[in-house]
Design brief:
The protein has 218 residues and is mainly alpha-helical. The chain has nine helices and two strands. α1 crosses α3 and α8 runs antiparallel to α9. The protein is globular and about 55 Å long.
Length: 218
């Protein structure tokens, strides 16, 4: 059994990241460190550690003498994240599906089931479960740097996943696309995996482009 010990800063990081993804921390307003530290019952040292990591991950920005701010969602950032995903993820998942073990299959199936459960019961959890599912498909390749890059892009994509899934029917489409991708992955069909994941990511990017275009005209 593997025991994973997380530092206080890591736990704070996860709490604040979740709030950013769910839109509970407003964009362009300073993160209120005193109030946040008091609410979480922590000192400012691990809190600042977590905020610095969130800045490194691209979810916060900092300004001298003003502290940290939630980085606004934007069409430009969505474009960059999803084009990078297109450049890296389909080939990485296609490679990984040729090296999967029985344990990898169980992990991917479990991640898919958790994603499905979240889609039915807790939309705010979907972004995290979506990330875990996509990373589970990359990890068997054994390429640590590739897996880390994909996971970082998935973290940045979490807010955009929720925006993408907001319109009715998108969740059903995502479920069918994930099911087809998983089936091909479990069967080791690398060409099909690469094609399906490319289409899945590209379709999401097209939806996000339309989303930001509509927002811009309002």
């Amino acid at each position: 059994m593997t025991i994973v010990v997380r530092t206080l800063a890591e736990r704070i990081f996860e709490v604040i990241r979740e709030r950013i993804v769910e839109g509970k921390l407003p964009e362009r307003e300073p993160v209120r460190q005193d109030a946040l530290a008091a609410e979480l019952g922590v000192s400012k040292i691990p809190l600042r550690e977590a905020l610095a990591r969130l800045e490194h991950e691209g979810l916060l920005t900092s300004q001298a003498n003003r502290g940290w701010f939630v980085r606004p969602m934007s069409a430009d950032q969505a474009e960059e994240i999803y084009l990078l995903r297109l450049a890296i993820e389909p080939a990485a998942v296609a490679f990984a599906c040729q090296h999967i073990t029985d344990a990898d299959k169980v992990a991917a199936l479990d991640a898919f089931k958790l994603l499905d459960a979240a889609a039915n019961d807790d939309l705010n959890a979907v972004a995290v479960r979506n990330r875990e599912f996509h990373v589970a498909l990359v990890r068997p390749g054994g390429r640590l740097l590739t897996t880390q890059l994909v996971e970082r892009l998935e973290v940045l994509a979490e807010r955009y996943v929720l925006a993408h899934l907001a319109p009715a029917g998108r969740g059903d489409r995502a479920h069918l696309e994930h099911q087809a991708l998983l089936d091909a992955w479990l069967a080791g069909q690398s060409d099909a995996v690469q094609a399906l994941l490319t289409q899945h990511i590209a379709s999401t990017l097209d939806d996000l482009r339309a989303h930001f275009a509509a927002s811009h005209t309002q």
